Structure formats: structure tokens, C-alpha cells
Amino acid sequence: MYYMFCTLFDRNYLHKGLALCRSLEAHCNEFTLWILCMDEVTHSLLEKMQLKNAKLLPLADFEDDALRKAKQDRSVAEYCWTCTAPLIRFVMRQESQVTHAAYLDADLFFYSSPDPIYQELGDDSVLIIGHRFSPQYQVLEKTSEIYNVGMIVFKKDPHGLECLDWWIDQVLRACYLDPEAGLCGDQKYLDDWRSRFRKAGF
User: How many beta carbons lie within 10 A of that of residue 185, not counting itself?
Assistant: First the structure.
């Protein structure tokens, strides 16, 4: 199958993002990786490298008024989390022929084909992955929440888009690391998706 991925990173994660891209090159026959470059240094360096399967997206070409407004009161990390869901929607709109789009954290690395992940998705519209903390680290779930946004897949169908658009609305409203207020960036919002969006599968 043809994979449509997206990720984002700045100069601090550039080496990790490149490792992600190389791992996909090693294990995917056909894919595109959209890279939202969070600073000009990242965009300039990647442009010179001419990565075969990458599409570079400068931050200025991605941001809209809603994102620029949200950016004003968020840390760098919080703003990156804010951009995740809108980036997936952006890619879907740019790539009109795709049936799926997946967000990947820049510090992921693939050791084999991602195809079994998509087999797990099956007929469902959204795929999310639990943290699955080992028993001694189970306490971390209280602050890191149930699911991890490291990889998340959406089908471009009504149920997938309903979930994605709801998520975008939430992160634009609030995407802070504030456990006392019940906020964990973009991750807390995934906790009730299996009940909130039953038709999306999971």
C-alpha cells in the first residue's frame, strides 16, 4: 500500500527526524513523509538534502490565524503539540487521493514494515496506541494519560474526519502541559475517543 505520513520538528529534533525518514526508506516501498519545519534552519538544511520521499512544509505556509493566536501563550513544546492535529488535516487536503494519513513523532524509528499496524486498523477509521506502561511505571499514566500520540492514523472517511476535526478544535482551545488542570498537551483528549466516537472503531 501507499503510506502517507506527516511529522514535525525543529533544529533540536532534526537528527531524530532524519533517522525516522531513513527508517521509512528502509522499510516502506512507497510513502510520502510531509515534514512541518518548525524553524528556518530545519527547512534550509532539509531543502539542501533533497530527501526523495519528503515534502517540506515551512511553518509560514502552514500557520493560519487560529494557530498564530494559539501560539501566543504556549511554550515551544505546547505549540508543537497544538500543530499535530491540524497538520494531519492539512496533509489530507493537499493529498486529495489518499485514503489514510498518519502522524509520526519525529523520534520514532521503524525496524520493519508498518503494514501490520494498518492491518490492525482494518475497517476502523482511527488507530490510537496505548502507552502500555510496565507495572512499575503504571503511575505515569496519571500524567501521561492512556494513549500516546507518537503514531496516530486517520482514515479519510466521515467517522475519521469527525474525530480529527473535534481534536483540532480542542487543541486550538487548550494544549498545555498542566496535569493539575487535567491537561496533557494533545494526549488527554484521546482518553474517551472509544466512547465518544464509537463509529470510528478503535
Answer: 22
Question: Which residues have CB under 8 Å from 39's CB, separation 6+?
Answer: 10, 11, 59
Phi-psi map region of 198: left, alpha, beta (phi>0 left; psi -120 to 50 alpha)? alpha
Which parts of the chain have pLDDT scores under 50? Answer: none
Rg (CA), the chain: 16
Q: How is 122-182 classified by DSSP, letter by letter?
A: TT-SEEEEE----GGGGGGHHHH-SEEEEEEEEESSHHHHHHHHHHHHHHHH---EEGGGT
127: which strand partners?
Answer: 153
* CATH architecture of the domain with range 3-200: Alpha-Beta Complex (3.90)
Q: How is residue 165 written as a grid cell? A: 476535526
CA dist., res. 121 & res. 124, Å (int): 6
Decide: helix, strand or coil at residue 79: helix
Model pLDDT for residues 88-129, shown as the tens digit of each residue: 999 999 998 999 999 999 999 999 999 999 999 999 999 999
pLDDT of residue 182: 72
